[in-house]
Amino acid sequence: MAAEAAVRTTGGSRADARGQERRDEGRNPRSWWSGRPGLIVRFLLALAVAIGIAVALANGYVWWMSNGVGDGVTLDADTTPRIVAIRIAVLTPLPLLVCSWFALGWSRVNRWLHRWRWALGGFVVAFCTALSLSGSSLNGWHWHLQSGSMLNMTVLGYPRLSRNDEFGINTAFAASQQYNGYGATNDLLGGADPTDMFIVKDAPMFGVGEIFRPFHWGYLLMGTNHGLGFYWSARLVVLFLVGYEFFRLLTRRVEENGEVTERRGLAVLGTSLIAFSTLVQYWFAVNNIVEILVAVFGSIVCFDRYLSANKPTMRNSWARFGWALLIAECAGMFLWSLYPAWMVPAGYILVALIIWQLVAHWGDVHMRTADWLFLVLAVAIFAALTLLTIKGSAAAIHDELNTSYPGQRAETGGFAVSPTTLIGSAGAQFLTARFVGVPEAGHIPAFVPLGFLVAVANMFGNRRGHRTDPLMVILILECALFAEYMIVGMPVGLAKATMLSQCLTPRVCLGFELANVILLIRGIAMRQWGASATTSVIVSAVLAAYGAHFSERFTSEQAVTLEGGAVYVVPVILFVEYFVLAMLCMYRGAVWSDFEARMRDAHERMVSSRRRERIVWRGNRVCHALCTGGVAFVTLVTIVTGMLVNPVQRGTSALHDDQVLLASQAADSEEPGLFAALGDRSSTSSMLANLLAANGLHVLNSTQVTPHWNLWKRIDPEGRHEDAYNRYAYVNIVTAAEVSDDTRFQLPYVDLLIVRMTPAELHDLGVTYATSDSDLSGIRADGWGYKKISEDGAFDLYRIVPVDELSQ
Asked: pTM here?
């Protein structure tokens, strides 16, 4: 544990010595550049250089957009002065960090960042909230509606059209709540069937259940515009910081001299691999993956604090009560994420971590009577809030659990994930080059099989008493279970017994890759054995070539074709990433807490005529620097590639500025009515209903999370087609003059329902207005037809009127 970037010693004489050294340095009148004025000047120089780099990157972004962002698509970046200023401000921090390392010193900067991490995180959240900066692909609406610029008020990046469930459902539903007073049910969605907004996982509401969804509080306090900025920024910051605390705990160990050490550099690497992975970033605002990970990491950190608080004082009991309440908050966050496909594999990891903590603290936990009373009180509070939440949404929860999709899901796994995917997931870092990114290709770069190899090596190479790590053993077994389910599959009975039947096969990758990241970080931190520099370099090069090969194969399987310089750059980056991590897994210098002292002693004993000694000494220096810088390199690559997934978007104007929306609002203000979004463009027409609701209009065919039973009973009174509409689905209405009962419902995809209806039937359901991407003027049925009242844009607005009024 030699390098300050990868190792951080807490407490003890070394920390005191460093503090005294810093104090003495500041008092030295002869060393002006090492004093405070010198630091300020050097920081200002670093800031000036960083701003210059940010300006160059901002100009490069504009050039990149205009020359093609992948898949042959060119876009015009927003170059208004305010957006350019924000763009430079957003691009400055990373260059400033790198410049500060050189100007102020590696250790000094890293210590400062660690000390002020929560304050810096709060500043980032406040900055993004105040400027309404989010990662939403809202400008995707401009593509769907064929109006406006796809980069209007976009600071960086570009909208991901494949994330239509983010901007087309979740963000639209959240925006509709502002017109609904953030009520528990929303009658803007679903016509006669108000939608339960707690079950809509990313919709804010005033209710007991929102206690477990703190990232929605920005909406409730500030509305949609600033609330969306808080929602995106707070979730990323909290995930990163809570993940950092978790990995600090994971890397903590007691040295031979009794000193407690932790690997802060590895902690930053671990949380970056997860928070900025393409898996988390592609699914960032969908299905609560962030809340699940925050709940897992946060609950374990709080559990450790709870078990460690052993002082027999009342103050200690109050502290334990606070940790218990935070654990309850995490438990509620996990429970009400309501997405079993990710909850189950994450739950396996959580169980392993809980067992690890119980084993680590076994015999050291002392509970007073007050501790037991406070624990019972915390459990009672959690149970009461959970029961109240269930009571308020009991009908919706029942309906969701009993839907044909996803409630009756019974997967058996197998053949959906290849071994190449599991081994080469690091290649997912470079899938962001595609314009139409595929979320299913998102993965956590786990650098398999390095974590498994170092964990097994530790079982044989560590000193006695340190070879068997229960966490490592359990995680290896869980990885085997996950791999068997994904590659081979399971019988139905076994899949249900393990609860994996609730998981689509690709979703289990979350558990497998998360376990491998934990194995990698903990394996490196707990390693007590080591190989020489020469052996480490040779073996690491072989492992790096192996890993880079499979990572390239992974990108090929995802139909990503590297072009230009990327053909050479990407393989080199992958090789270097694998190489430095493999070095950390085996190089003996990386586990020396007194590396600098050893190098000084070796240098003093070195005989100048002994060439071999000089080569070994220099080789150790190089390998040590490689391990130190390698952690920073992999971390920066992961952060940069992760940030390329989602855009940095300012404001929510894309929700409101299309002509069909303005015309619909004008018509509704004159005569309020119910809207239906019609048309043959399934993906756009069905989502347009959600956009209408996001502008305060009542719609019939919004995306249904649970079945709109009152609507379907009127259309299908005998329930012949219940299996078609008893599901989570986009609802696309296609209108015609005649519709037979046999062709009324169509299910082209598991989550897309097409319903055919005549204008008379829509009128009977209370529909007053209809939007459509095709001409409806000639469609008439039973005395009713469509009268066009607006024709600007890709969608026209119609009013359902008697046939007699059509000729007027």
From this structure: 0.92
